[in-house]
Q: What sequence folds into this?
């Protein structure tokens, strides 16, 4: 499978351990996008919707992403942002369980998922509640009063990974609808949505799938359920016949009904080119490579940086494709690392986060990153004013 | 002001009368986007959010679009699709009038606006109703039972234009919230949102503003209202402190609270470059040029094509920047025109639609288009099987 490093544009000397936040530019993207601009939009203008099948992109890309997450053909569609797709899945899940009032999630979920739930609950104003448990206690909290369980499989802070199979089965046992957010899973770990039996999954494509900043989100609906779903955001491109311009909404057949408005063709085109790097990748093999890299990093860092405490599960089978260390001065230490071209990121209050992406990272990169981190920690060179000023985004 | 035709990539020999559906590629876009890909995403990766201020794009572009629609600084933000922005405006409007149950629109509104209203009503399940009147009767239908009036200023089929000022005033008189959809207005006709007093406006940027397929939508909120709005789609980038990763939603100050998820940076960058073509454009002057072109087209077509019936208002002050003709075989006639590189579009059941965009169209183009249309009509060359097969998008 590997190495595929040559498929990516990586700045000389940079060791990029932040593909779990924003993947790098695949070399195929600029040329493909330039061609789309000039030969499709520029040359065909409005005719591009037909000639270049821009209209078919959301479903076509859905199938390509679907293959990486164990979803059958025509069960995944691309569009909007992850927040919007979370909203659609949640609204559909609550529709399916009108007599239950609890949305259950965990305290490790990414905030936007919780905010969207909060907004939906307020809007519905029907006595729903968002209940948060710690990740460790979530399985037991899945009871028959729960309408929807909404979890991000891999915790954005710690990398701790839920067991998708057993939690999905637990939800099914008590009749709760299961929504998985795969933001840190798609392209990071093997996922088998079909086997899990979950009702919905959502995710983004700008992390491990390298679609670029603002790349579209995706939504999966279990195929046997799609025809009963009345989409909450009933936009014209989810209509059965968008170009009939009817006054009443009629949902499209199949997963297309989860589309909302005009697709972001430029973003989709960049993603389409970036996905070429995934052709022929075996997810089990990728997972082995990812575990080898993260185990190596933990070993090298723990041997030389006693100030850092592993914040990720020690068992590699219980974490995704990232490793986090807690350190009270983690913000400054991460800035010092970034200044030396080792790019990870910081998550408040004290998490230094490192992503492992075997498509473009190898053991030498990991050794160099650990060496530089050890140097920063042993010399205390992070302890300088310029590393302590907080910027808006890290 | 004009000509600015040289700023656009227009295929040789093509006369493009569909800028009201998808604007052409501005010459500045490919270079700017390539630079963004290589020098921002490619070189800076995650740091681009800060270094290249991707995070500030939605508000920065909001100000640029705002200048074209009479909106003050910091009252417009870009993001998502028009459907999603319609949903946000509608939900906020209904929140503001909890005791009223009617959303009023007209039968000429673009379907997605109606579908989003229908979906929101179903979701709220509180007895709201969507009431449709004909465009001609809309003013009288604005009564004290109406919670929200939602209108597209310029009718996508006929080009008929509502009087924004008098309708907004009528809504204000009876205490209804006014939402204007400016899809066919922004960059087409002078708009003064501040003077209108309306509460909300939404629109897209891929038509007259030439942002490209999938370019982001925009939303305007009257500045005195924004702090009381509890956004329906409460995503993390509308949070007061997105990077504090709090468990509870707290809306950002000002228009930023109408943001939802991660901005589509590639689309925004293309739009940003395309908007350069609008620098220094006087909207009154542009409007004069647009009227001159459309008047010329109507005169030339009516003189030679008696089969076609003007479907747009004859008074240029009552139409936007497009002209429509009704013809029972309009689909085939439009295909015949397109085959001769005059690009307009067809809207069911019988509308041939032509957009006038003075940034890149002049009187010679209009004469040539009218000549070719007259030739097709007088020779009956549209009456051929290849022009009658319907494709998915027109």
A:
């Amino acid at each position: 499978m590997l190495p595929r490093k040559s498929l990516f544009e990586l700045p000389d000397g940079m060791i990029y351990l932040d593909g779990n936040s924003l993947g790098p530019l695949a070399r195929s993207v600029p040329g493909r996008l330039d061609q789309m601009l000039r030969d499709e939009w520029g040359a065909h203008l409005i005719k591009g919707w037909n000639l270049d099948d821009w209209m078919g992109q959301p479903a076509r890309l859905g199938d390509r992403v679907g293959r990486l997450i164990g979803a059958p053909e025509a069960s995944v569609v691309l569009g909007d942002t992850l927040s919007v797709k979370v909203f659609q899945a949640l609204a559909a899940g609550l529709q399916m369980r009108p007599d239950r009032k609890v949305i259950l999630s965990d305290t490790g979920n990414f905030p936007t998922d919780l905010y969207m739930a909060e907004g939906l609950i307020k809007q519905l104003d029907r006595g729903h509640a968002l209940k948060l448990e710690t990740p460790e206690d979530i399985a037991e909290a899945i009871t028959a009063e729960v309408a929807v369980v909404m979890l991000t499989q891999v915790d954005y802070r710690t990398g701790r990974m839920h067991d998708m199979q057993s939690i999905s089965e637990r939800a099914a046992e008590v009749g709760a609808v299961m929504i998985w957010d795969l933001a840190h899973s798609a392209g990071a770990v093997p996922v088998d949505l079909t086997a899990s039996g979950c009702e919905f999954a959502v995710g983004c494509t700008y992390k491990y799938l390298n679609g670029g900043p603002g790349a579209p989100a995706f939504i999966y609906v279990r195929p046997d359920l799609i025809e009963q779903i009345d989409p909450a955001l009933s936009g014209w491109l989810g209509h059965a016949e968008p170009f009939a311009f009817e006054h009443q909404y009629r949902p499209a057949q199949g997963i297309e009904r989860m589309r909302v408005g005009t697709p972001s063709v430029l973003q989709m085109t960049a993603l389409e080119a970036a996905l070429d790097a995934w052709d022929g990748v075996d997810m089990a093999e990728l997972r082995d490579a990812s575990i080898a890299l993260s185990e190596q990093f933990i070993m090298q860092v723990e041997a030389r940086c006693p100030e850092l405490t592993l914040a990720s599960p020690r068992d590699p089978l219980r974490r995704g494709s990232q490793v986090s260390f807690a350190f009270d001065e983690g913000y400054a230490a991460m800035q010092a690392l970034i200044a030396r071209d080792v790019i990870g990121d910081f998550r408040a209050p004290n998490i230094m986060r490192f992503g492992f992406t075997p498509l473009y990272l190898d053991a030498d990169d990991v050794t160099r990153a650990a060496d530089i981190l050890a140097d920063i920690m042993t010399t205390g060179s992070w302890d300088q004013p310029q590393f302590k000023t907080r910027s808006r985004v890290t």
Notes: Chain A has a mean pLDDT of 96.
